[in-house]
Amino acid sequence: MIALLTGTIAHKSPDHIILDVNGVGYRVLIPFSTYYELPEEGKASLHIHTSVREDAIQLYGFRTRLEKSFFQLLISVSGVGPKLARDILSNIQPAPLAQALAQGDIHKLSAIPGIGKKTAERLVLELKEKVGKLEMQGAPAAEPRELPAVGVMDDVASALLNLGYKEPQVKKALAGLDASGGGAVEELLKQALKVLMR
Questions:
Q1: DSSP secondary structure string, 3-54?
Q2: Which of 25, 34, 132, 144 is deepest in the core (most CB within 10 A)?
Q3: 65-131: which CATH architecture?
């Protein structure tokens, strides 16, 4: 199993990157939290979870071991697959996620696309104790840092749709955003997610 990849970023988008490792391009699916932290080009290292199914082998990459640990905790819950786990980490940082699980905050968890009340209750039931054992030191409580502009409103809309938001929700979230000043896709995504999580 692949556990770590270090290489050159050949392509970067909000939901995946292609990492060139000695001439081999690996397509690695990533959450927004990792996307925010990666440079636009140059070297990068990602902690990898290899998902093996009958019809596909997929790589999920994370900037930190903590994110990978959370991902693996999430997919251990019945009914939570790798895509949903990635979407959860795209919508909420590890520190507030740990807090929501520890406090049994069903409302906060069920506000995440793809997470209904029953799934939120199952997450709390199965992970409340386990999350306390994770090493949370150094986990960012605030929003990730911004990076230079690389995209447009279409990228933001596409990323939100991939996260499970419906088209009317996406249109509403994007309506109040201002991309005329050349805002970075990361900044616009953060703004849109804040609107949607209210």
A1: -EEEEEEEEE-SSEEEEEETTEEEEEE--HHHHHHS-SSSEEEEEEEEEE-S
A2: 34
A3: Orthogonal Bundle (1.10)
